[in-house]
Amino acid sequence: MLTFPNHYRAPLASFAASLDNKGPENVITFVVERTKDTLTLIAGCEARLHLLTITLDEHCSLKTGKFSLNASMFKLCLAALDKPHSGEPISFHVRYHKGRLPVLTAQPSSDLWRDIHATPACDSHLGLLARVRSAGYEPLSKCWIESALHHAHSHPKLSLFRLNQQDEKLEIVAENTLHSYDLPYHTNPRIDLTLDTDALEGLKALCHQNRSSRIHVYADSECAYFSDEITTVCFGLNFDESELEAKPIHYQVETKFSVNVNALFNELKSHSQVDTIKLENQTYLYVSNSGIRVCGATEEERCFKCFETKVPPSDEALLYSLTSTEFKQAIGQFKTLNTKEMYLQVLITPEGSRMLGLYKHTLSEFPYSTVAIELFPEGLEDIEADIEFHQSITPTQADLFC
């Protein structure tokens, strides 16, 4: 009997989903090592390889050896056997018939059987397994990876993702333009890592799938391997020369200011408690020498909060609008840095569009993240009238002693 315990159900489902009947290797290779009590499943090819390492129980009847099975037949059996609501593990009957290669039998019901006769192990799979096992992996914190990958969300046309450890920055190429970001934390990996879109998506998926706190990473100029010690996914990397040599974008700074991170996040949370403001999904930033005001508003309801800034903004008062959910998500991500103050700059691209850059400190060369922002001059007169009215309100006696 070969039994896959229930905690392998999700990795096994991911493995089955990766099987490509039209791929160059339409087989799955089994590598059984009874001295280690492990079974390694191998699927795919050099361009996209998927490995799954299973711990075998003492009752497993597989013998030490290597063999392959038809991938589409194995996938059919898994689909028939996978009954998550029953609580039963996925199991195959194993017998060795007329030789050293086994026959695996699935019995999804009392009147249904699926037999798969093993064939000699796929040589290319064995060669790739040896290469994967000999790679020099670096363990990376999954939390760090997820923070770094957060930048990819703001670049839907991303084609290259690069960790430049020498210059301590993240680099993203989108539409042949280089965007640079400050590394997420004070302690960052000491490796260089360049990924294309497919490899980046594979890394995201592995982070989402596993419960481990670390992902083991290896990458060179041709391939990238990611492993959580159960699942290992490997990608051949493909880059255009134009992507590798993409030029950085040069911004003009329109204004700059700072705010208290926690106070800003809490104010944005309070806006979302008003159903109409939440539905509007717009946050307004009023930037002036007298202070920074954050506003969530509709025609009937308005929430304001004034923030002191430690960085003098430009002399001209400016009003901007942002998408509330994007802004709140960026602030929430920034909060993980555990810094009290956040420094912001409104950046203008050569094409005239604007980005709000969030910086860890005033000396940061690159933003930690960016959010799309728009100038909103048509609302400036109304918001300044509201500010003037608010300032005319006499504080209550209780307010004076707060």
UniProtKB/TrEMBL annotation:
<protein>
    <submittedName>
        <fullName>Uncharacterized protein</fullName>
    </submittedName>
</protein>
